[in-house]
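Review form for a predicted model. The reviewer records the input and the model, then writes brief findings.
Reviewer: anonymous (R2)
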Amino acid sequence: MIKGNSGNRFSTEVRARAVRLVLENEADYPSRSKAVVSISGKIGCSPETLRDWVKKQAVESGDRDGITLSEREELKALQRENRELKQANDILRKASAFFAAADLDRLRKR
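Model under review:
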């Protein structure tokens, strides 16, 4: 089985197919929950897992509020950049203090 993500047991194709099955066939069941339970048994995942996939797809398609995958990736990149910039500023602050102290020592020795 081809994995979509190294931590996931199901490929992205299987996930997409399972979500599509739920959305296309939920009219055949008394509720979406019953459709999820039935289809999850056929796919081999837990109903909670399939329910999460359906919710994530709704966010991605804009039918539900939330952060999309691309927004999550962008946020992660910005957080990483922010952390790196804070580290660089800290290094520059320490270097500035070091050289200022060295200048004071040099001036006192004259």
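Findings: The domain at 1-66 is CATH 1.10.10.10 (Arc Repressor Mutant, subunit A).
Further findings: The first helix runs from residue 12 to 25.
Recommendation: see findings above.
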